[in-house]
Amino acid sequence: MPLPRTSLRGFLAYAKGALRTAIDSSQRITFVIGNESADLDSMTCSVLYAYLRSMVPPHNAFSQLYVPVTNIPSSDIQMRPEFLALFPYANIDSSHLITLDDLPDLSIIQSKIRPENTKWILVDHNALQGQLGKIYAHRVGGVIDHHEDEGEVPQDTDGEPRKISKSGSCTSLVTEYCRQAWDLLSGSALSPGRAYAQGESLSDDSTVIKLWDAEMAQLGLASILIDTANLQSRDKTTELDTWAVEYLEAKVMSCPKLSAGFDRSTFYREIDSAKKDIGRLKLQDILRKDYKQWDEGGQKLGISSVVKSIDFQQRKACVEAEAKSPNKAYLEALENFAKESRLDLYVVMTTSTSSTGDFQRELLVWAFNERTISAARKFATKASEELGLEDWHLADNTIEEYNGDNQWRKVWWQRNVQHSRKRVAPLIREAMT
Ligand SMILES: [Mn+2]
């Protein structure tokens, strides 16, 4: 039985409650979960997919409800100002998102949610990492992703997608996959038995449906626009992204309540500047905000992706530590982060805009033992040309290459700026094996 059509707000509230009931009474649950960095793309992919599939399920759905999980504790939502800027457009707030806090504690989750009662659909990643992965990886039964295929999801996903292909935003792939379901929903009336309030009639249904569609469409649009720089990034934008933006924008524009006030570029600028507005976050939170971690042959790799330059982070570290040397304060902060996460290899990738307006990337690699030192050096040699690595320094600021007490550290400009963590992470992981 499909779920009756409702708003995103109504759906998330319902799903949260139904999840609790399902856990308490050992019912089957289908989770739709994004990656551990929990960026905008991961969040909107899981929400869009779960919403549309719950209302237009495949004939052999594992459970009636698809529950979208944002792969972070609820408190971490506050570290994502772009989420907070976007929520009003979808008529929801932080409390509506379903996060790790809505699942039983990871140390006891296995006894509360038995693996055989679950099915996991991965969006915006294709290997379930961390503690959840240890327990539930063998229950993954579908994927839509735009990262390199790690070969972990079975080929036969029976009724659910196994779609891994290139696109600027994974949300474009989800939009494409769910298009028929969505069009079906947009075209059908609300549930036939629905009781109408006084003064309300059947014709009001279409106004309501258009508003709900537009709210969902804005949610999806935000991710695609952020991931493709408003379709202006030549390296990232694919034809599918352009199609998806047109498709979603049309849904916004056919909603009389929202169309007049909607301008795509203004919308993009608002979400984008919110994303970069991380000045009031602590440096440790900035490093944690867009962070991914892997276990590679018993060695732990962590990569932070930061939307501010190293120079900015150094000044921030200096102020926070009330220190004299920005450089020293920064390195101490990085070392603390790496120690707390028990990393053997820590990488920081930055994006920023130069004083002349150019998009630029920096790459910092810090190895903490013999094995990762040799892996890091191997990576630096092998990937140098592809990534366009160039020794880093500013006019009055350098971080010297460091080699001593079982550590190695180096910083570069990454001149081939088209390569994000999506490419850099596989290169480093390859060097670690
Ligand atoms: Mn993505």
Automatic annotation (TrEMBL):
Cofactor section: Mn(2+)
Keywords per UniProt: Hydrolase, Manganese, Metal-binding
GO cellular component: cytoplasm
Pfam families the UniProt entry points to: DHH (PF01368), DHHA2 (PF02833)
Gene3D superfamilies: DHHA2 domain, inorganic pyrophosphatase (n-terminal core)
UniProt GO molecular function: exopolyphosphatase activity; metal ion binding
Residues of the DHHA2 domain: 268-432
Highest taxon of the lineage: Eukaryota
SUPFAM superfamilies: DHH phosphoesterases
PANTHER family: BNIP - RELATED, EG:152A3.5 PROTEIN (FBGN0003116_PN PROTEIN)
Name listed for the protein in its UniProt record: Exopolyphosphatase-like protein
Source lineage: Eukaryota, Fungi, Dikarya, Ascomycota, Pezizomycotina
